[in-house]
Each structure stands twice: as C-alpha cells, then as structure tokens.
Write a structure and sequence with these properties.
The chain has three domains: 3-60, OB fold (Dihydrolipoamide Acetyltransferase, E2P) (Beta Barrel); 87-112 and 248-411, Rossmann fold (3-Layer(aba) Sandwich); 118-232, OB fold (Dihydrolipoamide Acetyltransferase, E2P) (Beta Barrel). Helix content is 24%, strand content 31%. The chain has helices at 81-98, 159-169, 200-212, 252-265, 283-286, 299-311, 332-335, 351-358, 372-384, and strands at 3-6, 9-10, 16-20, 23-27, 35-41, 44-55, 109-110, 118-125, 131-136, 143-145, 177-184, 187-193, 217-220, 223-227, 232-235, 238-241, 271-275, 291-296, 318-322, 340-343, 364-369, 388-396, 405-411. It has an eight-stranded mixed β-sheet with strand order 7-22-23-21-20-17-18-19, sandwiched between helices. A seven-stranded mixed β-sheet has the order 10-9-8-11-12-13-14. It starts with a strand and ends with a strand.
Length: 412
Amino acid sequence: MVDRIVIDRLGQHGDGITDGADGPIYVPGTLPGETVEVDAVPGHPDRRRLINVQQSSAQRIEPICRHFGICGGCAIQHLSEDPYRSWKRELVVTALSQAGINVAVAPLMDAHGDGRRRVVFHARWGGHGVLQVGYSAARAHHIVPIDRCPILAKDLDGAVKAAWAIAETLDVVRKPLDIQFTATDQGLDVDIRGTGTLTAPTMAALATVAQRHNFARLTRHGELIAQMRTPSLRMGTATVALPPGVFLQATTLGEMTLSRHVGDFCNGADRIADLFAGVGTFALQLAPRARVFAFDEDESAIAAIERAAASAPGLKPLHAERRNLFKSPLSAAELNRFDAVVFDPPRQGAQMQSREIAASRVPTVVAVSCSPGTFARDMRLLVDGGYRLLSVIPVDQFRYSAHVEIIAHLQK
C-alpha cells in the first residue's frame, strides 16, 4: 500500500523521520519538509521505502554516485553542503546534551581530503552462480556489485578491479570473502579474509594476481602470500612498516588534522601516555618533543611502533607496551606519572579507562573518538571527575556517512 507523508526531521543515521501513530517512521533518502510517496518494508513496521519525492526540499542535490540508495556505504549524498555540515555537527551536540554536558562544539572540520585510504570489499556468490563484488546493500545481506567508488582516494583507483580478480581466482573456494585494501606509500596492501584452506596452486594464482596488479603485499588473514615491497607510511619523522590489516585513520588528511590538534593540546607536556596507540599515529609525532609511553593490545602494532622509533631521527625515548586497556586499564596511580594522556579507543569507547583517568591528577587529557555516544559517556565520567572540557572539535573524515570523528581537550 502506497502512502503519502511529509518528512519532519533528519535522524542520526541520515534517514528522514516523520511521527506516526505508533512512533517514529524512518524513510532513507528523504529530507525535512519533503512530501514523499512510500510503501511498507516487510518485517520493519517503523520503516518505509521511498517510491517517489513529490515535493523536494530546496536542500536536495544530485548524489555523486549512481549506487547511492542501493549501496549501504553512504547515508546522505543528497543533502547540500551547509545543512550537511550542520547535521553532522549536531550529532556531537546532541550526544553531549543527552549526557548532560553543555559545551561549545566547534564547526565541523572537513578532513575528507583525497578520500578514504582504506576499504573493504565483499565478494559473494549470488543467485544462479553469479559472482558479486562490491559493498553490502543498504539494510540487506546481498552485495551491490560496483565498478568504481567516488569516495576513495586516487591511490585506491585499482582496488575495485583487483578485488574482482581476487574473487575470480578464488572461484573454486566458493566461500564468502572480505577483501581489505589499504593505500600505502609503496602501493596497495591487501588482506583476504573468509577463505578456507588454500591449495598451493591457488596460492600461486593469487601471487600472480598480486604481481599483475602491482600490490605491495598480499596476505590471507595476515599470512603472507606475496610481497613485492614492504608497505609503510610516514608518521612524523618515522617510517612505520604496517602489519597486515592494521587500523589507520580513514583519510590522510584526517590523520594530519587529528595529529595537529593532539600536538597543540599536549604542548608543554614532557611525559605523555598514548592509550590505544595503534601503530603510533600520535605517539610517533609527539616523540620529537616529549617522552611518550604507548599502550595497545595489538602485539604487531606495538612491534611496529618499536621498529619505527628505533630508526627515526630526533625522537626522545619512546616506550611501547602491549596491554589490554579494556581488561587492565592504566590505574590512576600509574597515570599520575604523566603530564598528558591521549586516548583514541575503538567505537565502544573506554569506560573503564576513563574512570581511572577521572580519578587521576593528570593535568591534560586529549580524547579522540569516532562515536558521539560513547564519547559523550566517557566525557561525562571525566567531567564528573573534575576535568574541564575546554574544546570539542568534530572532524569529518567519513564524508556522506553518519560517522564523525571527534577530538576534545580537557584539563584539571
């Protein structure tokens, strides 16, 4: 049954929302003020599928990608720039307000730059034995095959074709695949996940694909298949040899923007703890001016920091230690040794670690987050522990998505 409704507001995931008799109704691809025709989504009484926009918003623009609305990657390519920036900033404002924190939030900083430098493509066998390589469909389990993606950095231009070549090579395996590409200074670093045990001929065929597409390295669940060059990235004066499938900030400009603010907020600190340090994105750029103590659960990431620091010129002593900060956070007593603490946890935030920071005497804290909800929760703990929240800056390195990076400066 087709209904006509008017969209009232934009939700936190980029869906248009109107209020029905039984609660909010969500309509992807719509904007506030629009009159739209929709029909039901089976199994989802609070959702509707957009059929037609009868009266468009003045803020509606043409999406940059023909897959938008079908592919599940981007949420909001159809909104013009100024309201888009306001909506994304408001995600942070709302989360803080819901946590009872009233603080000025800076305007959104654009950090898309050249585009995403990391991407995961999915490969599945669809109906009638047809191979599909691309992104997961919006709110569905099938794959949307793609031949290009306009939000990726130019260094990933060859990634789509290479993903298809890998999937075709693994035809006999017939397993669902995830294929991760990372753009590095030496070329594409590729990790395949989801395959069963591979035969020697299949491994050889994959090595041929790696050579033909000029990969720097090809691995399977981190296990080396072929390597032509050691994938690495520059971080300050250091060169970091990257472990397979390692976490990095989504864009090069995003990393530079966050690192610059971290450095500014830590100015004058002599001893800095970098928690959830990864491969040293912040630690290695702080090390020329302060003693840095980096902590992370990932053993390969800690080893990468140590190797990079050992060969980089002009660094002060940098200590890197493997530690699960979720199960064993640095205690308040341990933290009191430092002049500043930087923490950049995964999406689930750092609740236990935040409690210890809140109980400490560390004068400067810099928080980096990719989740407004858990960021606000952790900020509430720090504020309740006596910290003043001086600055909150939303950073947009996830353009067209409902994700936003945040950096905050606190002092006690």
